[in-house]
Amino acid sequence: MRTTRTVPARPVLIVTLTLATAGSLLQGPDTAGADPKPVTREGAAVDDRAAQAPASAARRALAAQTPAAASTAAPARGYPRRQILSPDPENAGDKSLKLGLTPYHAIAPKLNALQRLGDRVSVEVTGRSAGGHRLYLVTVTAPETTRQARAQERMRELIENAPAAAAKSPEIKRAYKTPVFVNSNIHGNEWEGTDASLKIVEQLATAKDARTRDLLAHSRLYFNITANPDGRIAGTRANAGGFDLNRDFVTASQPETRAMRQIELDKQPAVLLDLHGYVNGTLIEPTTPPHGENYEYDLFLKNSYANALGMESAVNALGYTSAKDGVEPVQIPFRDQEEGWDDWPPIFTPQYAAFHGTVAAHTVEIPLAVNNEEYDELPVAELRRRSAVNTAVAGAAIRATLKHVQEHRTSLTADQIEVFRRGAAGAPQVPVSPETAPGVPGIGPEDVYTTNFPRAYVIPPGDSRTQRSAPAAARLVDHLLANDVRVTRATHPFRLAGRTYPRGSYVVDMHQPKRGMANVLLADGRDISGKVSVMYDISGWSLGRLWGATVEQVPSGSLRGAPLRQVTEAAPVAHTAADGNLRLRLTDPREIAALNSLLQQGVRVRQGPGGSAIVPASARRQAAAAARTHDVSFTATRLSGGTPLHRLRVAAAVTPGELFALREMNFDVTPVSTAVLNSGFDWSGTDVLFVSAGLDHAALTAPARRALNAFLDDHGLVGRGARGAALNAAADRLAVKPVEGNTDANGVVRTENTGRITRDAPAHAFVYAPLWFTDLGPGVRVEQSYATGNPLVSGHWRPLRDGTGGPAAAAGRASVVSGGRTVLFGTEPLFRAHPKGEFPQVARALFTVAHSGSVEESG
């Protein structure tokens, strides 16, 4: 847990809200001010526990990925859309039960009962979690015929795709149903949003008052009942794959994240609540600086702040007090805090939603902790009291939001249209100010974040002969399309801004409705080290720099007349040469996965020059199958290769993201940890050890330490970060001195690649708690160094108070070193399964140390 310092509150704006009709679901209670308090968030960004996720979770997540961007939504049909859900087996171990909340196995029967209450409630299954549990989306709205539903879909598409026309449409102003999205339980051990949503749905299904009827006649309300059923059942923040889903939106590695993304695309909500816990008093966004520079922040802040005031009023009016209930007044970070709760990275649900037209989006942190040590230590009666309070608070936030939507639906829709209009027209952003965000107090220069959008991005298709970067380009294009970014492809060579690009190049025209989404994914980002003292989570994430494809920014120019055709998926890369031996480059995770699939089949692959793999002509059929499965290219070669390669068995004490990335590359991985080794781990089935988390040499028993040391004497070690460097030192392997930088630092850095392991790697890397190596002993090779000058491209990296640990101290220092069947990384090449262009560095390190007596002997 990290806590920001308490700072003087910004001015508090007191707004009086009129009470709704008594008895209505949409009552609006009185306001109450908030005392400034430290802002806290649960969970460290860097987890030092070794991941133990089952391989089935990774298989399920990887199998669920789809290459095309086309919506998976069914053709428009009327409401209600009922379906009978089969029940799940009762699970007495469901952690919800202790809190008196709804266990996962009771949700399907509850939803069946809600559908029977009338004609307002519909249920869809939007997918399955990494653990295999169904994901439920509930829609509440007044009944619609198929014709009416098609009209709503037509208006929704007009809002995004023809916003200038939509702004003038009297039909939209009169008849469009404002979409609202309530997302619950994305952190599995923050339970109560689910129960509050179920209560609200039941009330909406049966309420007879005029205000509720009017709300449902003019809105569609979408409830993602539990975004993380795996964690709900297990009482964990993460899903079955070990992922914090509220950090996964840029990468979308997990099926739950992709289901939420699809809801955003299909439903296009104007308003979103993401229900969390636990901050006392209840914390309601909008946030402190830094604010995401790619948002239309003037529209976002104006609407989010107004709705936050309504939620504050509703929550405080429940009557809970610090003395009586242990509940503090609501806090709104933008108003009450200076820094520490930012909306800079698009990894959080509300911040990601802003790029799909959501103009009022909120994380809501309900007040009373019932997870972690509280779950284990508090009496059941106290836990249930707290859960009841939290459920009531979440319900009040939902009701206040629905009231706000009912009263402001026209302006909310108009502002969503304006977001898309600015993008489509290439209009400049409007800096936030008291004039552009009326009603918001305390706006200052610290809140102004804008960017200059380029005219376009060009993604070359890769070298036509070697297919270099072609898999990376295809993957990046498919990811852009999956995020609803429009991409075109050149049917002929063309010139843009004085440069000629080849046929097949992909072009992202930045005059498009979701330009913010395109730019936040592709741009370098910004060094914000001087803006705030500390960031809670990542501050840099550029797909343009980290995913392995060449991405060229075109600042200006005209696309008029360019031979461009819109695409719905990237062109396939798969190719297998018809004659001779075959060469497979190993510069992309897809190529590593293809290699591992061939090795698994017993194909006699040999190491080729430049870090490639040579496949014999006799295995052409297997190579062709691997090319189609992994969308990679096998080119013809006259080379026969050197060292034979074999299927690696990797023991890994690593983070969840690293474990997932290894499995994405099709490695045979066995998770280990200090506890696993102390239990008597059998090393006979292991070729190489990869360590970054959860393995402490000093905490091993004497037998476990002897067994580990014996293994390392004959096998390879790949270490990452402080934990990997510590094991290297304890086992007396590479003679290097690891230097830890500021542990809060993270972002995208420039690097210089000088070794075999980093050959053809991107000239950029990702770091979190960066590390570098000095005092290199004999035989130590520098594989990669931090660039000279200031290596930080985007993110947040400050020196420590004594002046050490900053980017200047790291400049020119070794970031990856090797020698003696050992490789050490000071960067984060697999962080949260995100920097995909860096994955092959780890793969090469594993193969190198497992296949040779020393790194220097490898080719």
TrEMBL record:
<comment type="similarity">
    <text>Belongs to the peptidase M14 family.</text>
</comment>
<keyword id="KW-0482">Metalloprotease</keyword>
<keyword id="KW-0862">Zinc</keyword>
<keyword id="KW-0378">Hydrolase</keyword>
<dbReference type="GO" id="GO:0006508">
    <property type="term" value="P:proteolysis"/>
</dbReference>
<dbReference type="Pfam" id="PF00246">
    <property type="entry name" value="Peptidase_M14"/>
</dbReference>
<dbReference type="GO" id="GO:0008270">
    <property type="term" value="F:zinc ion binding"/>
</dbReference>
<feature type="active site" description="Proton donor/acceptor">
    <location>
        <position position="418"/>
    </location>
</feature>
<feature type="compositionally biased region" description="Basic and acidic residues">
    <location>
        <begin position="38"/>
        <end position="50"/>
    </location>
</feature>
<keyword id="KW-0645">Protease</keyword>
<feature type="region of interest" description="Disordered">
    <location>
        <begin position="66"/>
        <end position="97"/>
    </location>
</feature>
<feature type="compositionally biased region" description="Low complexity">
    <location>
        <begin position="66"/>
        <end position="77"/>
    </location>
</feature>
<keyword id="KW-0732">Signal</keyword>
<dbReference type="GO" id="GO:0004181">
    <property type="term" value="F:metallocarboxypeptidase activity"/>
</dbReference>
<protein>
    <submittedName>
        <fullName>Peptidase M28</fullName>
    </submittedName>
</protein>
<feature type="signal peptide">
    <location>
        <begin position="1"/>
        <end position="22"/>
    </location>
</feature>
<dbReference type="GO" id="GO:0005615">
    <property type="term" value="C:extracellular space"/>
</dbReference>
<feature type="domain" description="Peptidase M14">
    <location>
        <begin position="100"/>
        <end position="477"/>
    </location>
</feature>
<dbReference type="InterPro" id="IPR000834">
    <property type="entry name" value="Peptidase_M14"/>
</dbReference>
<feature type="region of interest" description="Disordered">
    <location>
        <begin position="25"/>
        <end position="53"/>
    </location>
</feature>
